[in-house]
Q: What sequence folds into this?
């Protein structure tokens, strides 16, 4: 019985690591696709100017907004191939819209901010995986904070307050650091819950939705870090 129990524990641990690793692989693939598309856009600044001047940027932003909510709400009823394709399309759209932001900053500051974001993200993820603290209680506070910075950002679009700009930037970094740890631990908890009964199709779906959450955490953390450390052209 002891040997069998030990074997099952080891098998479950392998499953947990496997799902979490798959989530990180899909997230990395999404970020890489976003980066490639942004670089392609920036290779011809005229494309970016046209995107901004023609107001097409709003079409892409609305499409992103709709797609991320559709993917989050319907992923468990989608075919795995549709979920993967939707995630890829979202990554492409994000690469297009981010190119406008990237055009405002120097390449050197974008690169350094990317390393800062990657290091912070890895640290928060490692903390979530290794800590014995239950981070689920943080969820409601993080969501309230997220709503707060969205409202403050919209308000500052009209107010143009430098003080509020910096407050939102630093608050955004803190909130998305928390969300990174929170979402990582949720993915780990989900893998433990379904480790013994998850089918291959559900395995892909769980991987994609987990990747989407961490992708959004990384991108938003990066944008807020860029507001703080980025140097404008």
A:
């Amino acid at each position: 019985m002891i040997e069998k129990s030990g074997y099952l524990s080891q098998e479950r641990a392998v499953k947990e690591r496997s799902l979490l690793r798959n989530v990180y692989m899909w997230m990395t693939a999404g970020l890489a696709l976003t980066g490639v598309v942004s670089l392609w856009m920036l290779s011809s600044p005229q494309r970016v100017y046209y995107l901004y001047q023609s107001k097409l940027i709003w079409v892409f932003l609305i499409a992103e907004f709709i797609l991320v909510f559709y993917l989050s709400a319907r992923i468990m009823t989608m075919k795995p191939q549709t979920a993967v394709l939707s995630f890829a399309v979202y990554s492409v759209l994000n690469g297009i819209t981010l190119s406008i932001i990237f055009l405002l900053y120097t390449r050197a500051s974008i690169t350094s901010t990317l390393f800062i974001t990657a290091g912070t993200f890895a640290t928060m993820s490692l903390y979530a995986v290794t800590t014995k603290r239950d981070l689920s209680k943080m969820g409601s506070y993080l969501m309230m904070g997220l709503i707060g910075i969205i409202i403050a950002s919209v308000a500052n679009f009209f107010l143009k307050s430098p003080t509020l700009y910096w407050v939102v930037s630093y608050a955004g970094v803190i909130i998305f650091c928390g969300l990174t740890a929170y979402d990582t631990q949720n993915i780990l908890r989900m893998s433990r819950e379904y480790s013994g009964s998850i089918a291959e199709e559900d395995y892909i779906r769980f991987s994609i939705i987990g990747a989407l959450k961490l992708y959004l955490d990384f991108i938003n953390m990066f944008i807020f870090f860029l507001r703080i450390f980025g140097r404008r052209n």
Observations:
- DSSP finds eight helices and no strands in the chain.
